[in-house]
Amino acid sequence: MARSNHADDERRVSDLSLEELESIVAERKRIERARAFVEADETRRFNPITIEPGAAPRKPRRRRGWRDKILLLVEVAAVLGLLGIIAVAFGNLQALNLEFAQSLRTSPQTQDAQPVTNVAAAPVQPVGELPGSSFPPAASAELPGASAPPDALPASIGVNVQPAPALPPPTPGLQSPTRIVIPAIGVDWPIVPGDGWEELKRGVGHHSGSANPGERGNMILSGHNDVFGEVFKDLEVLKDGDEIQVYAGGRSFKYQVRAKRIVSPNELSVLLPTREPVVTLITCHPYRVDTHRLVVIAQLIP
Questions:
Q1: Where are the domains of the chain?
Q2: What's the rounded Cα separation, in Å, for the pair 200 and 179?
Q3: Which end of the chain has fewer CB atoms at under 10 Å, N or C?
Q4: pTM higher than 0.85
Q5: Intra-chain end-to-end CA distance of the chain, in Å
Q6: What are phi and psi of 294, to 5 degrees?
Q7: In a structure prediction context, what are the per-residue pLDDT tens digits for the chain, which is 302 residues long?
């Protein structure tokens, strides 16, 4: 006798159909799985694992050796020393510029007090780059690369070529510029003849052969921006319409700013003569970098 899913069904196996037999087998399998699930220790199978605090392994910390500590201290000391040297050098340069400016402004203007002889304007000196550089010229008067001093050259080469003597600065005439005042940036400096390295140590330099105050033509004045008093340090803040006063003895000539340019040091076109009476101010740019020249052009006010 076989039992189906109904308790009162007691038919013979031979009396059951194939679908009924499959249903009875599936029912018995289901009952067996349920019984096995109940009997199994489910709490043991799904019991969570607890991790005690501090049981996780710690990564070993690499200790810094005494050599690494010494190297670190040396590097820190080197950086601090370099910063200190830069700060001291900068402070000394600022103090030197301030002292130089005060000494020039407190010294008597001998150019206005002493009579000078009026001489013809000298021709414009040939130059390789614009004046106003903050770097001194090369001290050597010969080309580099020589393997022996001049006096050790053999006689077969010929005569020794001696460097030409430096030309003396031109004598200022009655109409030569002697002083420049720019109220907008607080400039009040003497003007010296010539615009070489030595001349610009004493103030603003007047380019040889350029126009005099009030004359038709291009009056070229140059000055440093970061050494020897920082004469033209604030030249870049000038704007159109600002006034520039240039004195020739006791006479004053007023100019108004018309243009401002930044050019390369070999841009010599700014030194060319002009038909109108103008003054061209030249200094290095940018501040303490000095790779270019700042040019300010002002026109005479009638």
A1: 1-50, 172-302
A2: 13
A3: C
A4: no
A5: 138
A6: -100, 125
A7: 444 445 455 667 777 788 888 888 888 888 888 877 777 655 555 556 666 665 556 666 666 678 888 888 899 999 988 888 888 777 776 666 666 666 655 554 444 433 333 434 444 445 556 665 655 665 434 333 333 344 444 444 344 445 445 555 555 555 899 999 999 999 999 999 999 988 999 999 999 999 999 999 999 999 999 888 899 999 999 999 999 999 998 899 999 999 999 999 999 999 999 999 999 999 999 998 889 999 999 999 98
